[in-house]
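Below is just one:
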Amino acid sequence: MKSWWKIVIAFLAIGVLAACAPAATPAPTKSAAPVSGGTLVRAMTTEPATIDPQGAPNSGLSLVIPYLYDTLVVRDADNKLVPLLAESWQTSDDGKAITMKLKSGVTFQDGTPLNATAVQFTFQRFKQSGTKSPIYAGIQQISAIETVDDLTVRFTFKEPAANFWSTITMPYAGILSPDSAQKVAESGKGYLIGTGPFAMGEWKASQSITLKRNPAYNWGAAITQNRAAPYLDSMVFKVIPDATTQLTALEAGEVDALFINQPEHLGRLQKNSAVRLDDAVLNSLIYLGFNSKKAPFDDARVRRALSHVVNKDEILKVALGGIGVVATQALPPTLPGYDASLKSYELGYDPNQAQQGLQEAGFTRGSDGAWSRNGQPLKGVLLTSNRAPNDSISALLQSQLKAIGVAVEIQQLDSKAVMDATGAGKFDLLLWRYDWNDPDALNIYLGTKQIGSTNRVAYSNPEVDKLLAQGAREMDQAQRVKLYVEAQKLILQDAPWQPLYVPTDVLAISKRVDGVKIGYMGRMLVNDARVVGE
């Protein structure tokens, strides 16, 4: 396998924002109809609650929707903007307006045409009802969406929006057929329709989701060689909650692709000549979060003390087999705003400092080794999803906290149940992961306005909010980075999270399937994929 450690400073240069976009990529030359490539089966840990890109996120939703709905633009593996439904765009001198020219001849899977009205409808719907989406804050920056002509749409903003591009390149910003949205709203049945390379087929609850090839597709982005309809007849997302069962299914030929992050699974597959392994470069972070609204974790002194209990090196070595990199701050090294100097602000492993911090917070330690304050014991429930390797990480965190006298109960639920519980504030500690393509991740996951939604730990600091709001508007790259560095200094001191590690995910794919590529943020690109053997 190639080395995973590719530090990609993911940011859009100011010159791109201030000027016309790159010239539109020529439409693909028509050729003979693609040869059918059969079916690709991918393992999925949890299924989505609904196939609505503007709804509440979970891992299942983010897996499925990139194939059903196209966005206006996408990013390639080097983080560069690439036209998709928008063929060109121009930003006003003051950064408060972006005008996009749409590709002609694009149709939704229900036969209706893509036009400026559909784009306008999509983002207006988002602004009205997409409150649970992780990109809602970015969408809310849009003050107006204007249809200039049938294929031209203009976005305007009250302030320059430096994070607009990161917002609309996420799959949640897929463009919807207005007709399909109206039918779903009226009947409560059916699915929202997009322009993607695949269309919804059959959904067997708790079993599988089947997507079927969209034969009319001929407007793909220049991130795959084949920009017309996929060669595959279909894709199947098979729901298999347990990671070991997923692995067994791959080895048995029941699934073709899955992502792995457990050392024993990786070692096992490295010996399997029928499987190919490709590393995925991710903008991701795994963290231990504290419920900042619930006593005693609403006390920053307690959060700091417990952060000092966490031995990240032990987690990486024992729970992860060395797969990943220890995290020192709230942003991963692949995003602007990461700064190695912030390590001096890290609340590193120091049991003595942890005990001293608890004493300063008013806790006393009894003869049994347990801590209490005002008669209330220091204990909690550690909530996480049933996705591997959360079980082994949770067990190690439980052991580390127990070693200084803090009892922790582990509760593992499916991803949706975890999101529901955190949204309602029904937890103490949280082992969670985020994946994002911009330093605005700090606002999405720690901004006050996102409490009850993507801010799962209910953290609020007005000074941090102010810095993050400035970062969202700042068009100068160097100045924007400084704002996120300053915000992280405050975040590290407040300790709503203890950053644990930056993950390495490995795509394991059967060699019976050829042409699958790993795209931006670890997404599987399948337009070039074919089944070459059984």
Residues 284-502 form a domain with the Dipeptide-binding Protein; domain 3 fold (CATH 3.10.105.10). The first strand starts at residue 39 and ends at 44. Confidence is low (pLDDT under 50) at residues 1-34.
